[in-house]
Amino acid sequence: MKTIFVTLVLSTTIITMNAQNKNSLLNEWKGNYGGVPAFDQYKVSDMKEALEVAMKEKLDEVNAIANNKKPATFANTIAALEKVGKKLSRVYAVYGIYSSNLNSADFEPIEAEMEPKLAEISDKITQNTKLFKRIESVYKSKDKLKLTKEQKRLVQVYYERYVYDGAKLDAKSKAKVSDLNQKLAGLYTKFSQNLLSEENNQYVELKTDSDFDGLPEQLKSAAKTTAQEHNLTSLGAIANTRSSVEPFLTYSANRTLREKVWRMFVNRGDNGNAQDNNAIITQILKLRAERAKLMGFSSHAHWKLSNTMAKNPTNAMKLMMDIWKPAVAQVAIEVADMQKIVDNEGQNFQIQPWDYRFYAEKVRKAKYDLDQNEVKQYLQLDKLREGMFWVAGELFDLKFTQVHDVPVYHPDVTVYEVVNKTTGKHVGLWYFDPYARKGKRSGAWMNEYRTQERFAGDVPTIVSNNANFIKGVAGEPVLISWDDANTLFHEFGHALHGLCSNVNYPTLAGTNVARDYVEFPSQILERWLSTPEVLTKYALHYKTNEPMPQELLKKIEKASHFNEGFATVELISSALIDMKLHMEGTKEIDPDAFEKNTLISLNMPAQMVMRHRTPQFGHIFSSDEYSAGYYSYLWADVICADAYEAFTEAKGPYDTTVAKRLLKYVFSSGNTIDQGEAYRLFRGRDAKVDALMRSKGFPVVK
Fold first, then answer.
1. Choosing from 491, 526, 570, 625, which is the catalytic residue?
2. Which H/E stretch holds residue 400?
3. What is the mean pLDDT of residues 150-163?
4. Is 491 in the active site?
């Protein structure tokens, strides 16, 4: 998952600062590498003031452009807008890090207060009538023909974005939209804080030695550490995060405890307590529907998809349903294989959701003689990180070197300078924050602290990858699952999308592309994890340092389509609920009832649940970013599968000619070109869904 921090907001306080501000958050980033955040100086207590000062400055800069008496030109309007809000960008990048990585009791009220103000100033800018008239004037000007291709694209993006956000609405409708946006911002914050609270404060205790039955040593150690962190007297505890829960469900031999852990995890935000998110979701859906109506659309889904590759919900739904049916059929086959093992063991129960991962592993071992515990011994986090660096060097000519002269916001964070291997030119910085801790939201994501540009000087990017791996015992290597290794490569793909950016204007740089395209660069990078070149060089046994043996490599390859039914249904069920919720218009919705009834109508397999149940679906209810957009993972997966076949049709995954095209038209071009056109330039045609079906081992859709 990729997170973008948008830099917009309002102020009620004007504060005059000296050249070097007492509030360190307001200072320019100094030091090497084009300047870096001064994490050793920042204080939560300065956050509100810094945001307000920076917001006021940006609003003044925007108003100066809007009130310019001279006729609108590309230079005095569009290019001028590219220069505004630099201080706010810096402050908001740090604010975003605290929100996601360092959330605390003293930060929460600041976030609750400032999020609506951030939404308000965003609207003040996009709803500024004078400003939009200037943008529209440049968009319609004959002089536009004299601009470069990238400049024309920038004008188009500005115009379409402002129209999308309601710039053409009447004054009354604009005011209503702004009010709705502020209310939504407050609800998103409350939803996120509720979810974080349940993840941080809920756990299942392991009280006896038998409660550890089946668990690998690293998971046992992590459970003991979790108990200590929560000051428990029990032998261990399973935290309420995916990185802790899924391994437990995979290996625990205690069925009763598996069910208890599973219920804790799938009921986050759905416990009828102060952190219950259902009422909040109902409000969010109602406000989104009202806003979409004001924007001239029949539903939130229709509005959100109007600026994507899919264009409308019908196209997205067709793709999902085409793949849903074969995926559900595959789950039935997977469940039958598991049920046979249960029956052969003489047990008298039907496979339930808390059994799926446990018995899937037994099937994997029986069918393919592949034990994920054996594979995991070769998946050292540090070694795989080096493997990612090597892939980036082979595909994109990048080199990563750890640096120690950069302040970090937590001792777990490491920083790497990224340079071009051939020229030695500095490209950017990559921050890595891999471990779970209290105050850090669950999951894995990429952030961009500074966007690449060449417009106002040669500005290098700063990106980060953030994850929630279990740290384990000090001094021992951290071993991760195959799924976690895929996630590691996935998020690194987002980071490379930012690092490879090579454009002039920041609005068009890096990951600033259509929502259903942004996951393509990340998902395609996952494919390189399973290449023999990576596994033989970087999948090294944590005790012997020996490479993964050929026999095991062959087993992994043979089992590459294993459990694809589960993985696909898990994802698409979430995407379908997301889309259907947001196609309902202004209907009053009970989230739990809607989820239950919709899944029944879809013939959702009873043996599993959505990857993200509605009350904990942060992708779509912690912001507008992925709302009515979770389908984008599947949409991008079609493109990814088709694109990777360009390599396999050539000389293989490290074919230099194909890699150069991938860099030129996908990873480095940002939004300087329509994404559909960019893909056709890379591939020579549009993507075909057949490639995805082949990659999953499903029958090809006719």
1. 491
2. strand 398-403
3. 98
4. yes
